[in-house]
Amino acid sequence: MSKQESGFKVISVLVLIAFFAAALLAYVNKITREPIARNMKEETKQAVRIVLQNLGQFDYPDDPLDKSLTEFTARYFTAKNASGQIVGYAIIVKAPNGFGGDFDLMVGIDSTGKVLDTYVLNHKETPGLGDNMKKEDFKKQFRGRSLANTRWAVKKDGGDIDALTAATITSRAFTAGVKRALTVFNVLNEEAKQ
Amino acid sequence: MAELALIIVSAVFVNNVIFSRFLGLCPYFGVSKKLDTAVGMSMAVIFVLTLAGTITYIVQTYVLEPLNIGYLQTIAFILVIASLVQLVEIVMKKVAPALYRALGIFLPLITTNCAILGISILAVQSKFNLLETIIFSFGSALGFGLALVIFASVREALETREIPKTFQGTPIAMIAAGILALAFMGFSGMVK
Amino acid sequence: MNIKEKAIKSFFMENPVTGLLLGLCPTLATTTSAENGIGMGLATTFVLLSSNVVVSLLRNVIPNRVRIPAYIVVIATFVTIVDMSMQATLYQLHKTLGLFIPLIVVNCIILGRAEAFASKNTVWHSFLDGLFMGLGFTFSLFILGSVREILGSGAWLGIRLIPESWNTILVFVLAPGAFLSLGFILIGMERLSRLFERGK
Amino acid sequence: MVEILLPGFILAGFALISASGLYLASKKFYVYEDPRIDEVEALLPGANCGGCGYAGCRALAEHIVNDHTVDTPCPVAEPIVMEKIADLLGLEASVQEKQVATLLCKGTHENSALAMDYRGIQDCWAAVIVADSIKDCAFACLGLGSCVQACNFDAMRIENGIVVIDEEKCTGCGICISHCPKNLLVLRPVSQKTIVTCSNTDRGPEARKACKVACIGCMKCQKVCQHQAIYVEDFLARIDFEKCTNCGDCVEACPTNAIEMRGEQVYVTA
Amino acid sequence: MLQLKTFPKGGIHPSQQKISAQASITYGEIPKQLLIPVNQHIGRTANVVVKKNDVVKRGQLLAQASGFISSNVHAPVDGKVMKVFRFSLLGGAIGEVIQIQPDEPGKSYREVLEQDVELSVDLNKLTAEEIRKRIQEAGIVGMGGAGFPTHVKLSPPPEKKIDALIINGAECEPYITADHRIMVEQPAQIIQGIKILKKLFPEVPVYIGIEDNKPDALNMMDKAAAREEGIFVVPLKAKYPQGGEKQLIKAVLNREVPSKGLPMDVGVIVQNVATVLAIRNVFYHNRPLLERVVTVSGSLVEHPGNILLPIGTPVSYIMDKFNIDRERVRLLLAGGPMMGRTCHSFESPISKTTSALLFFDEKAFVQRQENPCLRCGNCVSVCPMGLDVAIYVQMVQKNKLDDYAKEHIMDCIECGSCTYVCPANRRLVHWMRLGKRIIKREN
Amino acid sequence: MEAKNLLIMDSSPLGLAGESTRKIMYSVVLSLLPALGVSFWMFGWAAVRVVVLTSLFCIALEALIAKFFNSKIDYLDGSALVTGILLAMNLPSNAPWWLLLIGSIVAIIIGKQVFGGLGQNIFNPALVARVFLLISFPLQMTSWPVPGQFDGTTGATPLGILKTEGVGAIAKLKTADLALGYVGGSLGEISALALLIGAAYLFYKKYITWEIPVSFIGTVFVFTAIFYWINPQQYASPVFHLFSGGLFLGALYMATDMVTSPISGRAKLIFGFGCGFFTALIRLFGSYPEGVSFAILFMNAFVPLLDRYFPEKKFGMQS
Ligand SMILES: Cc1cc2nc3c(=O)[nH]c(=O)nc-3n(C[C@H](O)[C@H](O)[C@H](O)COP(=O)(O)O)c2cc1C
Ligand SMILES: Cc1cc2nc3c(=O)[nH]c(=O)nc-3n(C[C@H](O)[C@H](O)[C@H](O)COP(=O)(O)O)c2cc1C
Ligand SMILES: Cc1cc2nc3c(=O)[nH]c(=O)nc-3n(C[C@H](O)[C@H](O)[C@H](O)COP(=O)(O)O)c2cc1C
Ligand SMILES: Cc1cc2nc3c(=O)[nH]c(=O)nc-3n(C[C@H](O)[C@H](O)[C@H](O)CO)c2cc1C
Ligand code: SF4
Ligand code: SF4
Ligand code: SF4
Ligand code: SF4
Ligand code: FES
């Protein structure tokens, strides 16, 4: 064993390695930055397309806008048809108090305030239970519902929504999330009218 | 105040490092054969993790973020943690030999314990402030220690039981850990 | 060394997970499905392979005293590269594996192999070692992932095996199931190892 | 270019700070330790995985150096590493003739009958708590196998009331010896073929009564031995392995078959 | 009613079986031959001082103590030394015995005793040294079971101040009634013995502890002690193992002998009643320890009784005398069923510590298959020493004794309560004894 | 060995009190009869089916293991039966047969036999199974048949209602109903009174001691009382907590399992306190409505530590 390596050599080798490592990473970062950013946006865009797919052709901005209400904040995309008319919104809200905490929910709403579709962006609900909220069986009951035509609570709490079996907590959060999105819609709709 | 208490409860029980986050499992199974060792290891982890959480927080907020080089997070953190552990070891050996004999021997083990890096990164991801980061790191380490100490005592007790040959050693340890994880599920949802 | 023998060894007797009990965190955390297991395994294999090669290349340059920090820096570099490129190409998978990609850095297997093998062997041998160790790791992740996916979700590699209306045993995709499955898999692998050993 | 160089410099800065910090600290806080610990540690993988049961590679190295043993192998390292460490510490014992454990008793059920109906815990030590011997001979092998339990190499078994040692499997580790409450086991070099298979130190008549093949201390073997290798003490013949040539004269002379020739007879010329 | 004293923690109530309690002490004859064990005590082996064909007189020294903690052995009758050899003793050990052919076999031992004149003893003239010296010469050892040389016990180092003497008349073991009968029949003599002991420890109160299941003994001793200053009879609530000295001290004085400690550490000396009687005989008859009362009982004994026998009498003599069918005996116990030791030879001789011989057939032996421990804690709750028996035993079985267990296992008094109550039939005492052996072997 | 007229040699003592494992286990079965009777009365044949099936499954599994792996196992010693019955008492009466089978497999194999069988397990087998099932099949394990109605109506347990609907929803429940069993729940948790009667028998036989039940139930009472006192609008009353859920079943029969509880009295008190504390914690703040099983299982892991640091008081420690 070469035990008496000089302090200088020891330090400089490490410094050099660190330098090259970081430089390499910076280079890789430069290459991948674009695709990553695109991936991130793409995911949301994909979601927007899903929740608004019944609208036919539409156009919407690249980045969502923020909307703060008193109790919560939301982000939204405004979908416009070829003639620039608002045909719907894709609103991202936090669904509060799920089994695994709040989760991000995107709700597509048409210009009349009816729910088109929902999409869960990321969540910590239990696989096999809470995450059944992504399933068609559950999602479909929300289509066409508006703030006015529905009691926004699960049946157990005296509302109109059928809860997922053994996942009432998730269902409540989900329902509350959709309701939030509709509230945001109302505000946006008012603003747009003005 | 209540916020901080919740962070601790969450880190110790609800999101226990071992049973919920799956971090630091190698030392968990490696160092749990004897109770005394487990206690020493727990102390060492508590000390180092709290320190590491603090320092990585500083690195992240004052160096990486302002310079916009977040992608160096992993490499910078691990470098800082590794040096920190070694520095602590060197200093402790000289300054507090008694403490070193009790805890120091565990220090090298800790560098490659993914709980340290994992918790540091999680603290950053959770956007905690400095105080919260410290509490979070400390709580997580406490959770690790709790899990480790109970488990070590269980494994010592298993030594005196008639475990079938096939299951002796690691398999029964895994199963015991599994049952313990079942018990820890009871804490789920206590803190969101 | 005979490649076949080496393969059997790193898949069974010296399998990082079931033989050496290393790298447990990703093993347990990311194996909720067979697919995730493979993804994690391959990511690790890549890091293992590259860092083994680089460490082997640098083995005569790096002074003894800083070899560990130096290796860590090398490994961390590759981990970050994997991290970024997965995010760029396999976005969904990267999202599920989450925190455990950066944590490959501290996966004990990698540093262990760098130290135990690559720092003392030629580039080619280190490459092979990294490859087989990595594949052995992937293999056990795949097995564990399969067991948990089949029992916990009633599916395998995403293909539903049992009718939708049947119940699956949810625990297996949760934390307790990970430990329990690994406990039983360890026994199976031990049996297999002994079989191969005797076969020799 | 800047966006590539800047991170490089930053991390290099980190490295510089930590490396020189460590360097200085290791100078300032230097503590003397057995340098061989460092050497052993350098040989170990340094993965610090704890797989060996010690808290990291250094702890294992300390154990190896301080306790002077390589009994705990590192699970990560290639086996050659442990050999190297053994070499480094000069642990390789000089080559010795293989030793095997040997039972100095032939008190099978036929030769020395059971004196009681022992129903306690089936363990030799447990039995001697209840009775000094469970056979007629007070010195006989109890045949309850405490030694068998202790052997790690599966080299012993109980047959017809006494323990039989598989000399192939026996490694001569000697663990069994201290596990026999009757002190009936000794290590002997494998080439030593002549053995007095008795430990009874009672006078002739009593010994005879207790066991058919007991040594009765008649001195015939002592007289017949040309190498002064066998002698009687306390009414029991004993062989000096140094002097014994395995000529077999004593075996012939013994009236009770208490001396035995193991395996092929090998004559060693002085 | 006054709350009777007893030790607080643990203990059991095994069936008493004191069937020989009302049988007066009878006397045996001198058997055809005697086998005198050389070692009947705890301590160093005595040196045999006679050889083959020597003619010995009653009371003559046969073996000389080989140090302070050792004890003399004397010839109980006139006779001739036949040989000295190794033989099975009661309780399974093998040890040296001196075979003596008596001159007058068949002579009633009572007659022999009656030849000993009763001396008058002037207590005031006796000095402490002299008392200790004569007890030592007489080969007195504890007759309560352990056989510890009495002169050693009676010579505590000066820093241990003795402030109480306890006379152990508890006799808590089932079946045994030897001490009981002594107390009923010879209370005055016992008091004489106590008064000799009191000379060694002047002003120190003496307590005679007797369980309440022996009302006649309590009554007799009470009467005998009533006239004496500083001698108190303490009735005790029957509970096994009240007679264990640590338990007795706790019951009588509420003092706890520390772990690994001796009674003298709490200022107490405990002597068995038979020992006290033997001491008395040293002074009133000038007779060393030559005989003792043995209870003969068990399911195969038609007329259980208590018999005074010269030491060295073989069991076979007793079997003949009590008409015990050899063919049927499968279990021979020296001592009671809780602590007594099994024996395997009818020729083994009784010794200074043999308090009872019990004869049983196969039925008495409970064939027990050891089942896994349920951790029910019965063993722990009855252990008078507060040991975590079940846990230690699991460790012993796996050879995984930790320091804590090693520290405490040695405190086991082998009373057998734990095994008695274990629902899983575990041989706990045997394992505990094995554990002690292992620890001793390691040291 | 032929040892016909040789004398028997063994270590003392030679007498035994005559207790046996079977006696203890079958006494436990006996003591469970009142509670079983109540559940049969309330839930009808469905309950009988659950009890019979789990008992059979448990015993049969042990018999199989005895046949193929370890002939030393005495599968009729009653412990498998106790495990089976207690598992049944933790399940809803409408549990499908496969759920019972999986539960029995988990209890006997993962909970007991991998540790070496009777007496060797660290964790309570029936509870391992119950928690395993609860987590795996929340659907089946959270819909409880309503007692006295045999038409398959299901509802939530009082604690379930409390958790999902808040304090207001439980106001209409009467304590007497809770104690006597007129509320939804698993077979064994519906009647505290019947359980108490059975436990009194075990207590009389000294198979269980007072420490664990008293400190367990007492701790739950005290903690829930504190929160009730702080805010009765948000937290249910301690009396409600006492008589709902599996508290009595857990405290009297499951935390007292001798194999998986500590030995000394002091340790038992602490064990009971821990069980009570975590039960209250989970009930008040967790997302599971009931915490008894989790709490006991969690405390089971502390038993080796408790045994070690709170051993029996040693003789000779009085200074
Ligand atoms: C392991 C486990 C995970 C669970 N995950 C969820 C979940 O993700 N979402 C949810 O609403 N309930 C979940 N639950 C169920 C709740 O604890 C609770 O029983 C249920 O929400 C209320 O039940 P109900 O729908 O039957 O009224 C989970 C239960 C268990 C055992
Ligand atoms: C090595 C040893 C030394 C002893 N020393 C004394 C002593 O100095 N004083 C004393 O009163 N007893 C002494 N004893 C006797 C014990 O206190 C006790 O009486 C004896 O072991 C028998 O106890 P048992 O019949 O209760 O089992 C000693 C015992 C032993 C084994
Ligand atoms: C469990 C146990 C029970 C005992 N029972 C008695 C008894 O009943 N009577 C008695 O005299 N000694 C009994 N002993 C012996 C005493 O502890 C003690 O050794 C004796 O009283 C001391 O007196 P000695 O030296 O005169 O024999 C017992 C010992 C033990 C360990
Ligand atoms: C008082 C008592 C309570 C018991 N409680 C349980 C229990 O809750 N769960 C169980 O599986 N077995 C129980 N058993 C049975 C037995 O102890 C159990 O199967 C062991 O844990 C298996 O080793 C109990 C036994 C007794 C005597
Ligand atoms: S213990 Fe060692 S010496 Fe004894 S028989 Fe076995 S291998 Fe040979
Ligand atoms: S040799 Fe000794 S230990 Fe082995 S069986 Fe014989 S008596 Fe027992
Ligand atoms: S452990 Fe010893 S002292 Fe305790 S009850 Fe058993 S035999 Fe008696
Ligand atoms: S009495 Fe027997 S079963 Fe009970 S704890 Fe003690 S050893 Fe175990
Ligand atoms: S992978 Fe080894 S500690 Fe996490």
From TrEMBL, chain D:
[4Fe-4S] cluster 1 binds at C49, C52, C57, C74. It comes from the Bacteria. Binds 3 [4Fe-4S] clusters. It is an enzyme of class 7 (translocase). Gene3D superfamilies: 3.30.70.20, Electron transport complex subunit B, putative Fe-S cluster (1.10.15.40). Part of a membrane-bound complex that couples electron transfer with translocation of ions across the membrane. HAMAP family: RsxB_RnfB. PROSITE patterns: 4FE4S, 4FE4S_FER_1, 4FE4S_FER_2. Residues 32-91 form the 4Fe-4S domain. [4Fe-4S] cluster 2 binds at C137, C141, C147, C180. It comes from Caldithrix abyssi. This is Ion-translocating oxidoreductase complex subunit B. Pfam families: Fer4, Fer4_7, FeS. Keywords: 4Fe-4S, Cell membrane, Electron transport, Iron, Iron-sulfur, Membrane, Metal-binding, Repeat, Translocase, Transmembrane, Transmembrane helix, Transport.
